[in-house]
Amino acid sequence: MVTPKTIPQYRKLYEILRKHILDGVYKEGDLLPSENELCQLYGMTRPTVRQSLSTLSNDGYIRKHQGKGSIVHNLPREIGILSVSGTTSAVGDRKLKTTIIVKPVLMQWPADFMFSLTQLEKESGCIYMERVRFLEDIPIFYDISYIANLNLPRITARQFENKSLFQILRDYYRIEIKGGDQRIKAIPANTKISRFLHLKKEQPVLHLERKMETNNPDLFLYSSIFCNTEKYSIFGRF
Amino acid sequence: MVTPKTIPQYRKLYEILRKHILDGVYKEGDLLPSENELCQLYGMTRPTVRQSLSTLSNDGYIRKHQGKGSIVHNLPREIGILSVSGTTSAVGDRKLKTTIIVKPVLMQWPADFMFSLTQLEKESGCIYMERVRFLEDIPIFYDISYIANLNLPRITARQFENKSLFQILRDYYRIEIKGGDQRIKAIPANTKISRFLHLKKEQPVLHLERKMETNNPDLFLYSSIFCNTEKYSIFGRF
DNA sequence: ATTATTTACTTGTAAATACATGTTAATTTA
DNA sequence: TAAATTAACATGTATTTACAAGTAAATAAT
Fold first, then answer.
1. With a cut of 0.85, is the ipTM above it?
2. Is the CB of B179 less than 8 angstroms away from the CB of A84?
């Protein structure tokens, strides 16, 4: 484990308010304390408070109205994996049970990889793993993950059963996901996908291809995610 | 037409830099001028410049690295309708040709509408329209739009062929889209969808349900969008 | 009683300043 | 020559101050 760096004030306030919203302290439609009140309450200045509120607004937890205030917007989020912001892990990972299909192994990058790779990435090879994630015992996500093998000693030996991949990267390697790009398609399930997601062949499946940026400018995470959206939708902000 | 309000400095700079990136003045991987240089160049202070850069970063046009600078990230965006920010209309509407299936008509809201409505919205009824949008003569989007009938005089009489819906709302009613929520699913094409998108029945189609917020706190735009993602993907940031 | 107006309070925009922290290259030291 | 240090410069965080602009309720005028 690595000692965490000091957390900025605006992020602390972000986390506090976000938790209050999720816990129902502030409910849908409620007015948050005004910016000046938050300044007093938490001993910060307005720009700092505004930075917290701005992030909350971008993540969809509040809506700001000039002259009125910040209104809580805690809508029923289906499965919010679209907004994996640096601080948030979206709909609680706790609710998602994970099973490992292919344990992390070191291998070459696929020849026709979905994103273009830097020379550095190509040379170092990739760590590969496959997982299926369940929500209430229904398989929802079939994830194929790729990470460049850059300064991640012993990662293939770690236990992935309980902890999430993000959590391990954060705790042991100080790597934080900051954001990323994604492509979205609807495709028919092939044999493999239909088996893992308990669907019929040719049934529509949501396919996400994501490239995630980290606090290490050279290190990216890639994943190809197949989603069963029969019962649950994917939720997002724009 | 309405006279536009004064545009804030940080948005002007946002637009300038965005245009430069799209026009190739700054190319993929290039380093943008430093914040202090931009201050000098455009006669602004650093907080103002930083606000522009922060928005560019959120929209995926640059990536910021502490100590290094802002690096251009103008990746080939497939069809970027996921990021309809207030200032951006994503992949140029000019490339999309639109045909009207159902001209704007005033009607009651559907009984089982996809989002919950306020009393005000219910009472005022909705303006309904259907469109198909083509990219290089291939039908890509089948859009069903709903707008509450609030202070939008004569809207059903306007010409929608050339101008986009957003453009009409901005030019004639001063309504700007600021963001919104969406749900995403993969579904099988029904008869209607398959006809409009030139697909076989049961073929996978991307279904977006969006609720868009405007600068009028009481006015929302809703749309149900069916996408043919066989050739093009939907692109997004998170 | 109804309509204007004022007032107080909200968020939005902007400047000026300071220091922290990460990156890079030049410089110094061994 | 090679490693360590330093200096210059980049973005990150934070404070302080000021005014603009939108909202809503209290107040005054009709």
1. yes
2. no
